[in-house]
Design goal:
This protein is α+β, with helices and mostly antiparallel strands. The protein contains three helices and eight strands. The chain has helices at residues 5-20, 27-32, 52-57; strands spanning 23-24, 34-39, 42-50, 61-70, 78-81, 99-104, 115-124, 134-143.
């Protein structure tokens, strides 16, 4: 093989490989990546506004680490939280940017407050009050 071709092939290989890798997302990026503004001039209803950096990640595969939360009752709504349940957003520690809704293909077997790493597709929710501002679809997780 021609010696000039090998470096070109290596660059092409690593470029393709990197395009399929997920982006590591941390809680600070979520915290700094959102603000709220009045919707249609009505200050009672606020709409999420995301930074360009987060908008660029929408629809891409991301990975995050956090605590697994399951909403009791239905056992079908799952969250990744910056904090364990005892100090999570619902208990007054932090804002809605400290949780991410998880949408798994099959029911997960993790327990409340398990520390997990999640990989999936990032979605940003601007105005649907039935979901979190951040969602990870097609989620797959590993215990840490």
């Amino acid at each position: 093989m021609n010696k000039k071709v090998i470096p070109v092939l290596l660059v092409a290989y690593f470029s393709i490989f990197q395009s399929f890798a997920q982006v590591d997302l941390d809680w600070l990026a979520l915290q700094n990546g959102i603000s709220w503004e009045a919707k249609n001039g009505i200050s009672l209803f606020k709409e999420a506004v995301f930074t360009k950096e987060l908008e660029d990640l929408e629809g891409k595969q991301v990975s995050m680490i956090g605590y697994f939360l399951v909403l009791e009752g239905t056992q079908s709504v799952y969250m990744l939280s910056k904090n364990p349940m005892a100090s999570c957003f619902f208990c007054g520690n932090g804002g809605p940017e400290t949780i991410v809704e998880l949408q798994f293909g099959k029911k997960p077997t993790y327990r409340m407050d398990d520390l997990i790493s999640v990989v999936g597709v990032l979605r940003l929710n601007r105005d649907n009050p039935n979901h979190c501002y951040y969602l990870i679809e097609k989620a797959e997780a590993l215990s840490l």
